[in-house]
Amino acid sequence: MSQHPYEPRGHGGPPPPGAPPYAKVRPPRPPATPDLRLLLRLTVASFGVALLGSAVGFLAAPEQYTGLTAGPAFGTIVLVVSLLFGFGFTAGLYALVYFPLREQRQWGWILGIVFASMALLTTLANAVLVLAVPLGASPGLVTGALKAAVDVAWLVVAARPGVRAALR
Q1: pTM of the prediction?
Q2: Residue 28, in any domain of the structure
Q3: What angle do CA 30, 36, 41 make, to 5 degrees?
Q4: Considering only CA atoms, which of 31, 151, 147 is closest in space to residue 159?
Q5: Does residue 13 lie in a domain region?
Q6: pLDDT at residue 19, as a whole number
Q7: Residue 13 φ/ψ region, left for φ over 0, alpha for ψ in the -120 to 50 degree band, beta for the rest
Q8: What is the 3-state secondary structure (H, E, C) of the chain?
Q9: What is the CA radius of gyration of the chain?
Q10: Per the structure, how many domains does the chain have?
């Protein structure tokens, strides 16, 4: 056994003086590319369009509650609570993509691709259903089209080699 208790040994041992225990040495991050910065801006834009779609849905929804026997106040309360819950849930999902991407984590990129694909398919399915109903066009079609355009742009930028080069 060595006379120096902090001397590195082959099987581990205590950390050297001044080093935090169990510290991992992380390799330096590659520089953020312009494509990654554009992807981050598109993530924020997609979040904004999703909130705009929620607001349009909220403004169009009171007509759905006119026939409630509990009264219009109950319908308004239900709408406000569901809007706040939806806002929190949506913000959480976008945070799961934005912050890991900002930290250049590859799993955030993968999760973003999954979420953008699911949102694009859901938006297209909703558009088909709204157009199939003979009641006419919904104001949500405009925000849905904008959301679909942003999601397609997000997927196109995410597929660029500059984004992959910035992720570790």
Answers
A1: 0.75
A2: no
A3: 145
A4: 151
A5: no
A6: 65
A7: left
A8: CCCCCCCCECCECCCCCCCCCCCCCCCCCCCCCHHHHHHHHHHHHHHHHHHHHHHHHHHHHHHHHCCCCCCHHHHHHHHHHHHHHHHHHHHHHHHHHHHHHHCCCHHHHHHHHHHHHHHHHHHHHHHHHHHHCCCCCCCHHHHHHHHHHHHHHHHHHHCCHHHHHHCC
A9: 24
A10: 1
User: pLDDT by residue for the chain (168 residues), tens digit each?
Assistant: 556 555 555 556 666 676 666 656 666 777 888 999 999 999 999 999 999 988 887 777 656 555 556 666 777 787 778 888 989 999 999 999 999 999 999 999 999 999 999 999 998 988 888 778 766 556 778 888 999 999 999 999 999 998 988 887
**Is position 52 within any domain?**
yes
Q: Which domain holds residue 125?
A: 34-166
Q: Residue 71: left (phi > 0), alpha (psi -120 to 50), or beta? A: left
